[in-house]
Amino acid sequence: MQDIELESEDLHAALEELHQYVDITEEDLQKIYTIALIHAKKRLTLKVSVKDMMTTNVIYISKDADIHEAARIRSENRISGMPVVDKEKHVIGIVTEADILYSTGMKKSHDFRDILRHVLGEPHPKIRNGGKVEEIMTTQVITISPDRDIREVARILDEKRIKRLPVVDEENKLIGIISRANIVRYLGKQ
Questions:
Q1: β-bridge mates for residue 61, sequence order
Q2: pTM summary value
Q3: For residue 79, what are the domain limits?
Q4: Is the distance from CB of 176 to CB of 167 less than 8 angstroms?
Q5: Residues 32 and 111 in one domain
Q6: Statement to judge: residues 100 and 41 lie in one domain
Q7: pLDDT digits (tens, 9 = 90+) for 101-113
Q8: Residues 163, 73: one domain?
């Protein structure tokens, strides 16, 4: 960004171009401009886009995949959730650890006792065997584009109490994922 210095004649011309009375002096306008420029420079230096932080090697799954396969992939890759895509890689859902636990009969808002009972093999009346990812996935997925600011991602993750956002192009095709872990790693490098 090239630095531009305003001259008094620039301010005078701008005030005249308004074609109305403005109760401000050229000196006041210069002060306002200088302060605004400082704020704009700070904002632009702090802006970090999603594409600069996102993971591009995304682990995803098909809606037709078996729930057990989703659990295995999640476990092997040490991730708590993954996008569900169609054949053209359009994001159509997300399957999380909670979704997988729910498919085995756990409540979505499980507590430690529920997990312990499940691990110890206590029978649960809602247990289902088999099943496809599309039966348990969350279909109302919040996505984000790669040019958005990371502060927006942090706000969404906090407000929605979620851990990740799929990053999609203009055709809603999966191109990356941005998670709380990405943000923490980035902040650790600063």
A1: 84
A2: 0.64
A3: 51-189
A4: yes
A5: no
A6: no
A7: 777 665 555 555 5
A8: yes
